[in-house]
């Protein structure tokens, strides 16, 4: 393993990485640091080619010491689709989608869970707890099962229902709360303090980011190490955008990529847009968003612990932040299915809506290479499609289409 | 392209492959034949290594002439998981699962659809129609969208609901029927005759098998071209088992694999077991199963057009056919989730149930390498998990676990 230590991006304090550390004493999330020169000597781009098509192909840049601790359900190396039909239609011929619906548990949360749980197992964690809008809880519950770790999951009662079943069948201890993810977070924090559990809340342990950063590594490899111009990411807790930015910085430090980094775009819903609001005011942190409400439930995060890291990633890459309406999200979901056959989650659809808006304003130029990050499959959101097909009797006939 | 012709496995009549042919004049499904010597000279096992992790890596063994006709959503090279925990528990240490839940549309039907639709596009088809228990319809609807082909889909009204939304959002013409898939099939057959549509019903066109056979190609490659001893497959229409057997025969003819082929096991539900019944009587065809009823809806096929090919694959490989109960299926689904973190569909769970039964009787020996074919994700069957978690108020506390 090439991890050297944990580092606070706010106060620069460092921590030893072999203990089960949570936040920095200053309250900031911690980042995992590697000896990148040593990684560079240990592995080449060509070494990756024959490796399995999962995220562990980047094991030198991941924080697990002993391979026996890896819990792998086949996560990673999700398809990077060139959206030919849709791209022509919306005048972005170089429009791509990274489809994180094609992954265990159906969402990109599997990446954070695979790496986070594997590392938790390695560190000897027996019980972990987390608040969730559904999909992260489902993913951590799934990976905890083979790891022999008990997962305690608390999610809003109004969250989409399918992840409840996923948590339950994987054997997690599941609770609902009549409130938002921030309410679930407070319940988890007090239980963690009382019972001594490991807190697996977003960014309260350092390893989930490492899993999410593999999206950035894959985008780089799948484009032949020549980066796209823009990456749009639906932003709730923001771990993905933080992770992608971290991945690109590591690849840059290793000399595996060069030139300007892609402009990173945080996409939110107009019903919960704390990052957009902060970005518009050029602030370095966000304010708690009151009355959060959007059908893109996965990005209903009123105040993210890592907001300052998200905003930094945007500022450093000349990116931006955009909010889109629920109506536009549903239209984008339909457009993707009708043109490309991909059934995406509302959060993923939001990135298309934002890209179309940015193309209209000229912020995205027509020839630019643009990547939408679809964070999950629409199969987990069947309620977003309304359908009432005609019911026939045996022997009936069909009209000519 | 290396296709030479289409061939009837029943009467051996051959057909030219560049026309849109359906069944043989004798009523049998047709199989695609290749110049395997030429394939062998054109590609080596090593050539595959740097190719994309999708089923088109085997393009020399697939029936699409012009790459521009390929509709790819990233399907194929699904994970082959070693079920360590579960294998120890059920005394099959070499138990594996090929997880076809990690694929576009969430089921293995994506393979048949990707190849079938790509070829239909190449042959100039404008409208196709099919009966379905849900997942095949959803997959064909999805692939037809970017191909510019209109899909007319008829499914039983009692089929699980999620695929309805998938069909609708992809723009298919969707109908329900108050009956079984066999009733839907009759409606489609009469519409095809009346309107001149292409009939994409199971095995009524030759290319779906070619998509499904890639499961066999992948199993061979993922095991390093050394085959497992047993493959268990949940059998409705049986295209997958026919396809896997065809793949293994082609690889054998090319000299890419040697030794005894895996014993192929057709797994059905006790509520609909025509293949099991025929196999028990050593018959070469099955009889229509009256009153079919099982929660494993995808394998509710009272009489499969390719039954004789399924039975042949079983007999030729010294395989067998096993029926399992709905209760055992639900128990197996829970066992897989609790031990391995994988949330599988009931059809996939049935294969675990069957493997455990065959291990109990000694038909599977403890040291044998056994592959369960999970045909889809449990996310499409949320109703199979019952869950009623406690609901907390903000500020509540959690009990110690």
From TrEMBL, chains A, B:
Enumerate the Pfam families for this protein: PALP
Requisite cofactors: pyridoxal 5'-phosphate
Which residue range or ranges hold the Tryptophan synthase beta chain-like PALP domain?
73-376
Gene Ontology MF annotations:
L-serine ammonia-lyase activity; threonine deaminase activity
Q: Which keywords label this protein?
A: Lyase, Pyridoxal phosphate
Q: Give yes or no: UniProt keyword Lyase.
A: yes
Under SUPFAM superfamilies, the record lists: Tryptophan synthase beta subunit-like PLP-dependent enzymes (SSF53686)
**GO annotation (BP), single:** isoleucine biosynthetic process
Tell me the NCBIfam families matching this sequence.
PRK08197.1
What is the name of this protein? Threonine synthase
Q: Which gene encodes it?
A: thrC_1
